[in-house]
């Protein structure tokens, strides 16, 4: 079996994460290969998964108000675009006020992104789409470079950078601050940032969203092991792991793990090191932090941004927050 050199970062991260003597872990970004992205889209339509449904309802009701105070022509940049389904509410609103829209979806899953872009291009000829297969910050830089190289005058339009799906919750709190700071460095005073925050609520509402009865979240989580076997030559036996997700009340976050149901030895092709995984031990794969409005305020202030407007659903389960550079 030959391993592609492009997987060097993946190998390095996995070696580091599995070597942690306190808590084995894998960065959550590796959940999103082509199949992982497909499975996540299935998760978002499950009855237990309230975040997508709730965020979509806010966009459906408030798209006009979100955009009404932006006088310039709008260019959309979306980080972690996925299927772009929710973004279509903004498409419709923007195209009522300008003849065409330039849209840059950024996603690390190239094949999934390519199929989404192809579908969007056939649906509306007034949307000019350029898919950016990259991580978030480098993707924004790529967008800015494309605009510059095509002689766009930056003082004639406003970029709206959107970050839906409560994906900000996947970062540790300090990481979220640093991430928003990095986004801020790639914005000018005419730009806006629209971020979705899942709010703290009762545990009985939160936990089922990450343990759907149809089992898509379990498949999504276990697919990470399949990817590691395929791309890194690991020897994980998927029959010996179960999906495990719970709400950590002390940290206001969902934690997603893969729990071993037996004592195991794991190897990575090309490395002599053996990783011992005990029965009941877990590999931590993702966090999803839940925010209060006070926590949102503190995060925004520490990131060099200011809140322009907050939009919420009737249950106050979710906030869409429109931000501007200070």
UniProtKB/TrEMBL annotation:
Keywords: Methyltransferase, Transferase. It holds the Pfam family Methyltransf_33. It comes from the Archaea. The keyword ATP-binding does not apply. Residues 10-324 form the Histidine-specific methyltransferase SAM-dependent domain. One of its GO terms (molecular function) is methyltransferase activity. One of its GO terms (biological process) is methylation. PANTHER family: ERGOTHIONEINE BIOSYNTHESIS PROTEIN 1. This is Histidine-specific methyltransferase SAM-dependent domain-containing protein. It comes from Candidatus Nitrosocosmicus arcticus. The lineage of its organism: Archaea, Nitrososphaerota, Nitrososphaeria, Nitrososphaerales, Nitrososphaeraceae.
